[in-house]
Design a protein that fits this description.
Blueprint lengths: L1 H17 L1
Length: 19
């Protein structure tokens, strides 16, 4: 479950960088 949260945070961070 922790790995899932880390993956979500990484994807969310990349999305914020593109915006």
């Amino acid at each position: 479950m922790v790995l899932v949260w880390v993956f979500v945070c990484l994807v969310f961070g990349l999305v914020l960088q593109f915006w």
